[in-house]
């Protein structure tokens, strides 16, 4: 053993010297190097055992369907912590027959008192014993209850999730506090310097007028006093059924998760009773196109020593495709190729400085403050948008620049440009999937929509197969649709919807000329 320690303190020698002497070299203290080399086992040291993934099963997402229709999905990941959550196929898109804003209320009411836990504090103290944190997020098509905690506390975590989702108390006090929280969030939404959340709501309302994903994700102010326990129970009875749920976990053994699911989620009587769901909305999204305008004074959104100048914000979108279609990957590459961001972004290629909206828009037009591409995708539709902002006096010119970029998407795509976008997309995908909570959400959402999961290397292979012809094909198809337009701020110089539609139907993306006798 002493020889091994002495060897570790010394330097490695050349590979040509096998298990013979070290050529007479010695330590500064005068002692000779031991006669061992890196290619031979160290004397007195046990043979090293290396961790290895034994076949594909270590990487695959395992899915089990319980007797009541609940799906249990897990993904292996080394570490002492796990992320476990319950995803429900429910959201603002299912509220057509109900008061708008129920999902927003449920998000704020999550992890409050339940049949087993007397208060939110009791829940947090229970999680604290296992180093845990909790969160709930409601989107247009999914409500997600998630907990990250030590893997040893899995049984406690699943029990808590089952109680929070299926047996909430919904006391009068909690509902009143939620009303106050919702009102505050709505006020904050209208006062923020960043209008992106508001514009996202507006573009969805314009693209899918009064149906499915076009319904408001936030509770309207007039509905805050109308939503109570009876309304919530009526909604939960229809949408919080086991066949619309997935229990997903990352960092735990699949057998343990299935065992906990059987114990806490099989044969449970929900707080609203166990009657059959009778009024489930299975509507398919109907893309309508259109415009939503909000005239608003944006001159004082951010006062102070360095105030943000008054800006007008425009978002133009066209229907793309659902994430279940093959064209979803080309659209994802296209979105990455367009890229963009704010005019004050800094950095190299990794920050998107080579994307089209930087090269063609922000680098050429100094007066534009923002030009960013977004891609929203759902199980039955999708929306590719460009958000731009500039001084109110230059709104017309800004709109024309954006419509021109939409037309140029259908033109030639350079090989270098395409490869850069594909590499950047793969890089972003792999980087995001380093995070355990992100893996959890990916597993849950994919299994909820398709009952299976595409693995990262499969997605990377699909990205690599995208050709410039695929980009041209999906863009040509997209440009045949009516546009959706959202406009916020001083809209005096905003072109008409018909002119924007004409520009997107033209060869060069230019707006029709307007002649005025007086300005």
From TrEMBL:
Domain Peptidase M16 C-terminal intervals: 227-425
InterPro entries: Metalloenz_LuxS/M16 (IPR011249), MPP/UQCRC_Complex (IPR050361), Pept_M16_N (IPR011765), Pept_M16_Zn_BS (IPR001431), Peptidase_M16_C (IPR007863)
GO biological process: protein processing involved in protein targeting to mitochondrion
Main location as per UniProt: mitochondrion
Superkingdom of origin organism: Eukaryota
One matching Pfam family: Peptidase_M16
One cellular-component annotation, GO: mitochondrial matrix
Localization, UniProt: Mitochondrion inner membrane; Mitochondrion matrix
UniProt entry keywords in alphabetical sequence: Membrane, Mitochondrion, Mitochondrion inner membrane, Transit peptide
Assembly, per entry: Heterodimer of PMPCA (alpha) and PMPCB (beta) subunits, forming the mitochondrial processing protease (MPP) in which PMPCA is involved in substrate recognition and binding and PMPCB is the catalytic subunit.
Family statement drawn from the similarity comment of this UniProt entry: Belongs to the peptidase M16 family.
Role description: Substrate recognition and binding subunit of the essential mitochondrial processing protease (MPP), which cleaves the mitochondrial sequence off newly imported precursors proteins.
Protein name listed in UniProt: Mitochondrial-processing peptidase subunit alpha
């Amino acid at each position: 053993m002493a020889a091994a320690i002495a060897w570790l303190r010394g330097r490695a020698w050349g590979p040509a010297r096998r298990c013979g002497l070290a050529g007479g070299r010695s330590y500064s203290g005068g002692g000779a190097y031991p006669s061992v080399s890196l290619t031979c086992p160290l004397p007195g040291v046990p043979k090293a055992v290396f961790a290895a993934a034994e076949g594909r099963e270590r990487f695959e997402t395992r899915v089990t369907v319980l007797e009541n229709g609940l799906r249990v999905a897990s993904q292996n990941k080394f570490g002492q912590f796990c992320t476990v959550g319950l995803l429900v196929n429910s959201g603002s898109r299912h509220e057509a027959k109900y008061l708008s804003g129920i999902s927003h209320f449920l998000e704020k009411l999550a992890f409050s008192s339940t049949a087993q836990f007397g208060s939110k504090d009791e829940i947090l103290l229970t999680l604290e014993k296992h180093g845990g944190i909790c969160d709930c997020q409601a989107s247009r098509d999914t409500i997600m209850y998630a907990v990250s905690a030590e893997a040893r506390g899995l049984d406690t975590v699943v029990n808590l999730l089952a109680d929070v989702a299926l047996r909430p108390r919904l006391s009068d006090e909690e509902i009143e506090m939620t009303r106050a929280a919702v009102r505050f969030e709505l006020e904050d939404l209208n006062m923020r310097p960043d209008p992106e959340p508001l514009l996202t709501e507006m573009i969805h309302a314009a693209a899918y007028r009064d149906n499915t994903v076009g319904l408001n994700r936030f509770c309207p102010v007039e509905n805050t006093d109308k939503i109570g326990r009876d309304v919530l129970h009526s909604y939960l009875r229809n949408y919080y059924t086991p066949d619309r749920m997935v229990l997903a976990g990352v960092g735990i053994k699949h057998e343990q998760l299935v065992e906990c699911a059987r114990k806490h989620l099989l044969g449970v009587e929900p707080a609203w009773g166990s009657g059959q769901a009778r009024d489930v909305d299975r509507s398919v999204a109907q893309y309508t196109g259109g415009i939503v305008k909000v005239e608003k004074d944006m001159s004082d959104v951010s006062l102070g020593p360095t105030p943000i100048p008054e800006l007008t914000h425009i978002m133009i979108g066209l229907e793309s495709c659902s994430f279940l279609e093959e064209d979803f990957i080309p659209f994802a590459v296209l979105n990455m190729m367009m890229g963009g961001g704010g005019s004050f972004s800094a950095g190299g290629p990794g920050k998107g400085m080579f994307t089209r909206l930087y090269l063609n828009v922000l680098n050429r037009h100094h007066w534009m403050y923002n030009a960013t591409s977004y891609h929203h995708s759902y199980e039955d539709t999708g929306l590719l948008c460009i958000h731009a902002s500039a001084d109110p006096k230059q709104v017309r010119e800004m709109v024309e620049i954006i419509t021109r970029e939409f037309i140029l998407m259908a033109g030639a795509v350079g090989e270098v440009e395409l490869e850069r976008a594909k590499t950047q997309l793969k890089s972003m995908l792999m980087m995001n999937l380093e995070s355990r909570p992100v893996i959890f959400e990916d597993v849950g959402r994919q299994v909820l929509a398709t009952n299976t999961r595409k693995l990262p290397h499969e997605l990377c292979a699909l990205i690599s197969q995208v050709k410039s012809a695929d980009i041209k094909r999906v863009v040509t198809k997209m440009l045949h649709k009516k546009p959706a337009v959202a406009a916020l701020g001083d809209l005096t110089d905003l072109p008409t919807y018909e002119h924007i539609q004409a520009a997107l139907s033209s060869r060069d993306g230019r707006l029709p000329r307007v002649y005025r006798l007086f300005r």
